[in-house]
Design goal:
CATH topology of the largest domain: Methane Monooxygenase Hydroxylase, Chain G, domain 1
Largest sheet: 5 strands, mixed
CATH class of the largest domain: Mainly Alpha
Strand content: 5-15%
Structural class: alpha+beta
Helix content: over 70%
Number of helices: 15
CATH architecture of the largest domain: Up-down Bundle
Number of domains: 3
Shape: rod-shaped
Order of helices and strands: HHHHHHHHHHHEHHEEHEEHEE
Distance between the termini: 25 Å
Radius of gyration: 65 Å
Strand order of the largest sheet: 2-4-5-7-6
Number of strands: 7
């Protein structure tokens, strides 16, 4: 591939790549994906608000379980996973860093909130247990004190009941004044002047510790709620939403710019395509003119090729014209002598015919018997003489001999006509053995007294071919074989025909000449190559023969050995391949172009 083609492909690939990139950029914003992310963030914010409500409700409602507080955790995890999947594309675009930072801040705040909620659940459980146990502990302490007789029931129960009520009220309304009253009541309880038994003192201390636990856990719960109130989870969700919106707006702006670039680039491409179209139209016009010139040159070349083939035929015939003239002259001389002899016999036949006419006239005119008898005697004498001289038998023999000579001349003329005519080589059924025989007749003068012909003809089927072209191949090879045999050697030319498989016929033409030199063998089928003297060969005989065999879907091989001889082997298909339609035409017009 040339550098210009490579450069052209590279430029086209670059233009197409830029176009694809611009089209991709104009489709880079997925509105549905953005809406899904916004919807997820909105649901996360709503869930966060509901979660805060559940925490406060759990604080004030003394719930037996904390499912409502823990329930949002599973849904929150699902939403975070969903947000991770939806935001993959966002993190890879421009502005993805801001989205990633906002997402990380949100995750940190939500982690802190989860930890605070878990802490709140723990302290609230302790507060719930202590507050639930306070009435029981107060009742047990009062009953023990009364039973021991240390203090009357009216003295201990109001103090314990007051502490329980105030502690439970503090849970609902943790005011500082209530806390001070509770702490004062505890001091009064622990500072009673009456000495209590050890078990009652232990129960009193247990009751006081539960009251202190309520105070302490209530304060811890208030602190945790304060921390939850200060955690900016909603703000972080809003910041993440703003970052996503900012990136979406940035993407929309980039998409708009990409569309503008795409429009400009498309206009540029259309201008380039219009310019290329104008160049292409000009090229097509030039191509049509060039094609017309080439067709004219091709037609002239085909015509010249036809005459070149014909010239080679005439060259081959020219080398044998003297012998062919002799072959025609011999039977022609015999025919001339026969005609002369027959001319001499005409006088006697003419006299006999004249006597017959006179005799018949006398008989018709009823002439005198003496004239009739005299004419009859003369006619009888002429008839006897003609019969005795066997004139008719001689004329019949002479005519038969003349017919044989004329037939021989006719065969030579027909073979010359078939070989030398400038036809279109019609395809027909052809017997290669008959072709070899007719070729030997043309080359008879070249071969006689010099070459002994040996024929080894096997029974082979007829083939579909151009007979005149195949005969030309035979004549070229046989003529070369005869010329390759030295004059001081008894030449032998062996012709063989045989089957080559089920669908081919093989023809071998073998001579016992000097062989073909090794440096000449690779060139024997080259056009215009010849080892003959100037004027004795055109160098086209074997080249044309090679192309003819190729056109017939066959092949030709040469086997030669110095001082031993050469064998030309030709194989031809019985029926040309169906798909080789061009080779099956065998027109002289296309002969030289097919190879």
């Amino acid at each position: 591939m040339s550098k210009n083609k490579i450069l052209g492909f590279a430029v086209a690939a670059s233009l197409i790549t830029v176009l694809i990139v611009l089209v991709a950029l104009t489709r880079s914003v997925d509105l549905d994906a953005h809406n899904r992310i916004v919807g997820t963030l909105r649901e996360m914010k709503q869930l966060d608000a509901e979660w805060n409500t559940e925490v406060l409700r759990s604080k004030t409602g003394f719930s037996e379980n904390y499912d409502a507080v823990a329930r949002p955790l599973a849904r929150l995890a699902e939403l975070e996973s969903q947000l991770d999947e939806q935001s993959v594309g966002l993190l890879e675009r421009d502005g993805g860093k801001a989205v990633a930072q906002a997402l990380a801040s949100y995750r940190e705040s939500i982690r802190q909130k989860i930890d605070a909620v878990e802490h709140f659940k723990s302290q609230n459980a302790i507060l719930r247990n202590s507050s639930r146990y306070l009435p029981t502990a107060a009742q047990e302490l009062a009953d023990g004190v009364v039973t021991s007789g240390v203090m009357a029931d009216a003295q201990i129960r109001p103090l314990l009941g007051d502490l329980v009520n105030r502690a439970l009220s503090y849970i609902l309304a943790p005011e500082q004044s209530r806390r001070e009253l509770i702490e004062g009541g505890l001091l009064a309880l622990r500072g009673m002047p009456i000495a209590l038994p050890a078990d009652l003192a232990e129960q009193l201390e247990l009751f006081a510790s539960h009251v202190e636990t309520v105070l302490r856990q209530q304060d811890a719960g208030d602190r945790i709620l304060g921390e939850l109130a200060t955690l900016p989870t909603a703000e972080r969700i809003d910041a993440l939403t703003d970052a996503v919106a900012a990136q979406h707006n940035h993407s929309l702006l980039a998409q708009q710019q990409a569309r503008q670039w795409l429009i400009a680039y498309s206009v540029l491409l259309l201008l380039v395509l219009a310019w290329l179209a104008s160049r292409l139209i000009g090229s097509f016009r030039l191509l049509r003119r060039s094609n017309a010139s080439l067709q004219k040159a091709h037609a002239e070349l085909k015509e010249s090729q036809v005459y070149m083939v014909q010239s080679e035929k005439m060259s081959a015939l020219g080398q044998m014209v003297a012998g062919i003239a002799h072959e025609i002259n011999t039977p022609l001389a015999y025919v001339k002598g026969t005609v002369d002899v027959m001319h001499e016999q005409i006088d006697g036949l003419t006299a006999l015919l004249g006597s017959c006419l006179r005799f018949t006239r006398l008989m018709r005119d009823q002439a005198d018997k003496a004239a009739i008898r005299e004419e009859f005697m003369q006619l009888e004498a002429l008839a006897k003489k003609t019969a005795q001289d066997t004139v008719l038998e001689e004329m019949d023999a002479l005519l038969e001999s003349s017919s044989g000579g004329i037939t021989q001349i006719s065969e030579i003329v027909v073979n010359l006509k078939n070989f030398s005519r400038l036809d279109r080589a019609k395809v027909s059924e052809f017997d290669v053995r008959e072709g070899l025989e007719s070729t030997l007749l043309l080359a008879k003068n070249l071969l006689k007294n010099k070459v002994t012909i040996e024929k080894e003809f096997d029974d082979v089927p007829q083939i579909s071919c151009s007979p005149s072209q195949i005969n030309q191949v035979f004549l070229n090879i046989i003529s070369n074989a005869a010329q390759a045999i030295p004059d001081d050697r008894d030449g032998t030319l062996t012709l063989r025909t045989s089957r080559a498989g089920d669908d081919r016929v093989r023809i071998e033409i073998q001579d016992n000449g000097g062989g073909i030199p090794a440096d000449v063998l690779p060139k024997i089928f080259d056009p215009f190559f010849t080892t003959k003297d100037v004027g004795k060969g055109t160098g086209m005989g074997l080249s044309i023969s090679y192309k003819i065999i190729q056109q017939h879907a066959g092949h030709i091989e040469v086997d030669t050995e110095a001082d031993v001889g050469t064998v030309f082997t030709i194989e031809l298909p019985i029926h040309p391949p169906v798909d080789d339609s061009d080779a099956a035409v065998f027109d002289d017009d296309d002969m030289l172009l097919a190879a």
